[in-house]
Specification:
Number of strands: 0
Strand content: under 5%
Mean pLDDT: 92
Structural class: mainly alpha
Number of helices: 7
Distance between the termini: 48 Å
Number of domains: 1
Shape: globular
Low-confidence stretches: 1-6
Helix content: 55-70%
């Protein structure tokens, strides 16, 4: 099944470290808007990472993505539903991609958050293509990574225009 269904994860799922990560340290258990809460976890992880060099930031983001492919796929199999709404590590990774190279400041943090959420929810092409065509952990992660790349591009264009 590809579409998300509104259902709570089983009790005890958070006791498993991989599932704990896939569920965004519990943010995915929010009764409403778990993806938004997952993105907030992305903001929390971004704050200490944004001071790294670009290489360091990219390396940390790559680790988040690789770990995400594994833990999200495993959690989806355990939950019996591809991209269960409680699996939100993909939002964490997508937000970190969004903020790659973003200017410093809370305005940019908020702009990245809003832009990423808009693209992740609306799923315009090519995001929708990835969402519908890929399965497993890579499929769960891919649409959010593409949303992050698009949001990052928009943020970079805004940053260039503002600095002119």
């Amino acid at each position: 099944m590809k579409r998300r269904e509104a259902s709570r994860p089983p009790r005890g799922l958070l006791a498993d470290p991989g599932h704990f990560i896939a569920l965004g340290f519990g943010a995915g258990c929010a009764p409403r808007a778990p993806g938004t809460f997952g993105t907030l976890i992305g903001v929390v992880l971004y704050l200490p990472l944004h001071g790294l060099s670009l290489t360091g930031y990219l390396a940390a983001t790559a680790v988040v993505i690789v770990v995400g492919i594994a833990v999200c796929g495993r959690a989806a199999r355990r939950l019996g539903l591809h991209d269960h709404p409680s699996i939100v590590w993909d939002e964490v990774a997508g937000y970190l991609v969004t903020m790659c190279g973003a200017p410093a400041g809370w305005g940019w943090v908020l702009a990245g958050f809003l832009l990423f959420r808009l693209l992740d929810i609306a799923k315009p092409w090519p995001i929708r293509w990835f969402d519908r065509r890929l399965s497993g952990g890579l499929g769960i992660m891919a649409d959010d990574l593409v949303a992050g790349l698009l949001a990052m591009t928009v943020l970079q264009v805004f940053a260039k225009v503002i600095s002119l």
